Amino acid sequence: MELRQALLDFIADFANWDNSRKNEYLGTSRALTQSAHEALGGSLGTRPLIVDPFAGGGSIPLEALRVGADAFASDLNPIPVLLNRVVLEYVPKYGQRLVDEVRKWGEWIYKEAEKELAKFYPKDYDGATPIAYLWARTIKCEGPGCGAEVPLIRSLWLAKKKDRSVALQLVPKPRAKQVDFQIIVKKGNVWADQNSSNTRIKDPKLDGTVKRGSATCPCCGFTTPVTRVRVQLKAKKGGANSARLMVVVTTQEEKAGRTFRLPNSNDFRSIDAAEIKLRTVISHSKSVLSFTPEEPTPQGGGSGAGRAFSQRHYGMDTFADLFASRQLLTLGLLAQEVRKVGDKVRESDRSFGDVVQTTLALAVSRESDHLNSGCSWNPSGQKMQHLYARQAIPIVWDFCEINPFGGSVGDWQSTVDCIVSALEVANFDASPGTASQDSAQSHSLPDGSAHALVTDPPYYDAVPYADLADFFYVWLKRSCPGFWHEQLTPKDDECIVDEVKGKDTAFFVRTMRMAMTEARRILAQNGIGLVVFAHKSTSGWEAQLQAMIDAGWTITGSWPIDTELATRLRARDSAALASSIHLVCRPRETMNGANFANDIGNWRDVLSELPGRIHTWMPRLAEEGVVGADAIFACLGPALEIFSRYARVEKTSGDVVTLGEYLENVWAAVAKEALTMIFTDADVTGFEEDARLTAMWLWTLRGDVSIALDDDEEASENDDESEGIKTSLSGYFLEYDAARKIAQGLGAHLEKLVSLIEVKGENARLLPVAERASYLFGVNALEAGSQKKKTADQGDLFGLLKQAEESKPKLSLGRSVDAQGTVLDNLHKCMILFATGRGDAMKRLLVDDGLGKDQRFWKLGQALSALYPKASDEKRWVDGVMARKKGLGF
Fold first, then answer.
1. If we measure between CA atoms, which residue out of 671, 678, 691, 689 comes closest to residue 857?
2. Max alpha carbon distance in the chain (Å)?
């Protein structure tokens, strides 16, 4: 146990990012890996082989190399294969030489491309350098007799800083049927024209013209509905090339910060010249591939992965439609220069020329993410936000075009620097791994060749991986040798749920079962598997687990581990997954090879073993600080070991028990054990789901104070179907994923508890008791004068209760009709009555209506008193109610 603890301490220290590259830790980890390999029967001088058949970006095989194992990374999609080939094969083989060559040729490309393209991004007459151009797509107003050009703008903010605010002001010109722009600056509390500080502007309107896809005309006020907006933009293939240039963002060497100006004739001339140049290049191109990507964009859909692609609604049917002409010209010429580099390096070293060209092709691919009409302007950071702020191709009304030679975020030099930085922190001293394009359902490795399977497979219907990859694929195949064998990335065998492609749950289970069966085949008899999974739905979980069990795996453990950056794609302003569940599994056979493939489990025996297993794990987890949602899912592995050790489990009737049915019992057992820890000596089955969920919610927070959302928080999602979070709320917040896990474990449904839980973006909020007053007492909060406040304070409570009494003249507050509801509802009523000094009304509820005779009421109050944060109103109010217990004779 002492050695085990020392090893765990080392792993914890090594997991610290600051230690991840220190030679002492790397050397120790490699020595431990080698010792473990040999102790488990590995031949001297060999290393354990780690296999990842869903390699994706390659973090798992990369870490395997770092800790001294051999790594085999495979994927169906050619882009992950390319990424893994660079990191696992090229970097260990060429090391610093590759870094130096990429840096050198990246600079060469910059100079060569600048010769061709600088005139299309001209500097200002005063020497200022444009770093970004802010555009707005346009439609024609369909209001009666109007017909004005309407710029589609989500927000008029240009800079949002405490000491400096800049915005656009719309200047309607009805007679000219257009809208002009004015840049305004806020100094202190006063807004003024940027070019005339004496021209003050009172209460400027900073809302945009578009909301949920509908556009309001600044000239006549008519709102063109989203259906008509789509029709107009579809006719213009998305409208990137008919967009209105609104603002140019510049910098100057002698001045700090950004400067904003309106576009001038020089800007328009350069844009027109770029469009002419693009047509010329296209007409003279003799390449097998078209100069611009004419491949089709992904199809949209109604649910699941299909929701990621709204661009088709607006006529962006080819990838070229996602770019303005100047952007297409720039990316096409950059790809051309990368091909020239490959030819030059191959003159002296053919194989190394391919390596350098391939690595630089990644820079073009990355640049495409920063140079398209799906990028937006971030007024808080005063910088461009790339397209893939989330895993989708949305419509962005007012888009940002960067200058690839502007020296700011997203320009060519910063893109190359990013590639070089990634290469420099890779494994120069590691042995090369192997990257292969293989389907996980039909692998190229021989039987029993792997010592461990470690993989992060597709998440059911969460991400349309291949469709998203096509955006990068179309540019990679124009700049990378031998990369364009297919028009687009392969999708037929991709293991996801996608209704657009006719892939349902049955397809996912069948395909994943084949993949896990192959993984089982290539794993050594005494090998171990680790499958990372994270999904918001029980259907996703059941599908993954069912596939693993059907493939002959026994799940022996599960641990929630925070492996993701908060700024990752799925984390931003969405109901994103907070942690990944690591499922530990082993082949369903003994060490001597006896196979249990045909063993049948007895349902009664399985059910009788389950509570004891959970009862053993929950206290252990609590001692280790694993609580709440993470504790629930950490129990999943031990619970599934009971079920998955059998080929199938049958009832006495002979009916086969489904995994879904077993999981319902698992959630129930986990919830009962957890609530027993909260409600000591109480029958937890007597509490309704709202009380159970509230208690577990607060238990997860473990005394954390209420969290407020920032007023200025904005969603990065910028399409026609999403709105940013722009409210300031109090309450008890959990990341949506944590809240979902808790509710799922308790058999509760967040969507059915709208009077208690609010879900918005990536946050789920347990409403503060004061905010439930209108619901509890049947009063319309808006009529009570609180429509301007999302959260009621104590003064509001007096008003609400007074109105309740006045609106029900025949019923005095607190009579039996008001005592109906759940135990939690009645406790919250008493807490509000205590808070507003309505002691008599509270007494009537507790004594006359008999609430105080229900021991669940006091038990719940006692539990919540221990769970509410010490400084909260709820803690003070529930303690006030509990203090009346003895005085009222209970």
1. 691
2. 97
Q: How far apart are CA 396 and CA 240, in angstroms?
A: 10
What is the distance between the alpha carbons of residues 881 and 832, in angstroms, rounded to a whole number? 10
Tokens describing residue 528: 């171990």
User: Would the pTM of this model clear 0.85, i.e. be above it?
Assistant: no
Cβ pair 61, 72 in contact under 8 A? yes
Taking the C-alpha atoms of residue 493 and residue 798, their distance in angstroms, rounded to an integer, is 62
Radius of gyration for the alpha carbons in the chain, expressed in angstroms and rounded: 31
| Angstrom distance (rounded) from CA 572 to CA 389 | 7
Q: How far apart are CA 819 and CA 835, in angstroms?
A: 18
Determine contact, residues 376/722, Cβ cutoff 8 Å. Answer: no
pLDDT by residue (tens digit) across 77-125?
999 999 999 999 999 999 999 999 999 999 999 999 999 999 999 999 9
- Structure confidence at residue 781 as a pLDDT band (50, 70, 90): very low
How do residues 822-842 score in pLDDT, each as one tens digit?
Answer: 999 999 999 999 998 889 989
Closest CA to 102 of 369, 347, 404, 355: 355
Q: Which residues contact 470 (CB under 8 A, 6 or more apart)?
A: 295, 297, 298, 319, 488, 489
Helix ranges (H only) for 465-504 are 465-476
Contact 36, 11 (CB under 8 A): no
Calpha distance 689→790 (Å, rounded): 25
Within 488-540, strands assigned E span 523-533
How far is the first Cα of the chain from the last one, in angstroms, to the nearest whole number? 50
Q: Interior CA angle at 748 toward 652 and 767, to 5°?
A: 170
How far is residue 342's CA from residue 598's CA, in Å, rounded to a whole number? 57
